[in-house]
Amino acid sequence: MTACPAESFPRLDALPFLRAAFLQRCPGVDVATDRETALARLNTIHRETADSLGFQDQPFAHAGQVHGALVARVEAPPATPIAGADALVTSSPGICLAIYVADCAAVYFADKKGRAIALAHSGKKGTELGIVPHTIATLGREFGVAPADLVIQIGPCIRPPHYEVDIAAAILQQAREAGVNDVQDCGICTASDPDHYYSYRREKGRTGRLLALLALRPPLSSS
Questions:
Q1: All residues at 6 or more sequence positions from 110 whose CB lies less than 8 Å from its CB, including other chains
Q2: pLDDT digits over 165-219, tens only?
Q3: How far is it, in rounded angstroms, from Cα 13 to Cα 103?
Q4: pLDDT tens-digit profile of 28-81?
Q5: Which of 10, 50, 58, 184 has the fewest C-beta atoms under 10 angstroms from its C-beta?
Q6: How far apart are CA 13 and CA 54, in angstroms?
Q7: pLDDT score recorded for residue 223
C-alpha cells in the first residue's frame, strides 16, 4: 500500500522535542462515501504512514469532534475517541494526538519549553465557540504554560472565496488576543487543491479526511 503524502511545518520542525505531520489526500483510496466508511478505508494507510514518519509505538488519541469547545487532557491512549472533545492536550510522549479535518482547521499548540502539546479541531462553529482560546487556557491551567511560551500553527483549511468565513484569520486573531505572539498560518486552502486535499464542501460531504498528528518525542534510551 502506498503511503499518504505528508507535509510538516518549519516552525514546529524547529522544536527538537516535537514531531508533527499533516497527512494529505491518499492516492488510490476510494473515499466518495460516508465519513465512517471513508475513515475505515483510510485507517491502515494513515497508521502505516504515521509509523514511517516516526510515530511508531505512539498510539493515536482521537477526539470525538462535535464542533464544540471541550478540551480534554489525555495521558494514556484512549480505547475510543474522547466523546464531546474537539481539542486534546497532553504531556505524555507515549501517545500521538490525532485530529481529522476536511476543510476545518487543525490547530497545533506546542510549549517552547517542551512541557505539553495540544491539537484542536476548529471549524466555523468551534472557532465561534472559542476552542482555540479554551485550549490555550487549558494548557495554562493543567501544565503552567503561559501564552507567551506557545507556538501555534494553523494547518490547511478552507478559505475565502471558497467559504464565507475566514476561519484561519479568526483563529489567528483569537490566539493573539489570548497573548500568543508566535502564531503561524500555512496559508493553504483545502478547497483550492483537489490533488492534495479532501474538501467537505467541494466534494459535497462524500470525501475522505486529512489527518493532523502531533506528539512529544520519547526520551532517548539510556541503554
A1: 12, 15, 18, 20, 117, 150, 151, 152, 153, 214
A2: 999 999 999 999 999 999 999 999 999 999 999 999 999 999 999 999 999 998 8
A3: 23
A4: 999 999 999 999 999 999 999 999 999 999 999 999 999 999 999 999 999 999
A5: 10
A6: 13
A7: 42
Across 54-149, the runs of DSSP E, i.e. the strands, are: 60-62, 70-73, 85-90, 96-101, 105-111, 117-122
Please check whether residue 179 is in contact with residue 137, taking contact to mean a CB–CB distance below 8 angstroms. Answer: no
Residue 223 lies in a domain: no
Look up the CATH number of the domain holding residue 179. Answer: 3.60.140.10
Q: Can you give the residue range of the structural domain that contains 64?
A: 6-216
| 106-157 per-position pLDDT tens digit | 999 999 999 999 999 999 999 999 999 999 999 999 999 999 999 999 999 9
**Is the residue at 136 inside a domain?**
yes
Whether the CB-CB separation of 19 and 6 falls below 8 Å is answered with: no
Tell me: pLDDT of 99 over 90. yes
Q: Where are the alpha helices (DSSP H) in the chain?
A: 10-13, 35-50, 124-129, 131-143, 167-177
1 in a structural domain: no
Whether 222 maps to a domain, the answer reads no
- Side-chain half-sphere exposure of 176, counting CA atoms within 13 A: 10
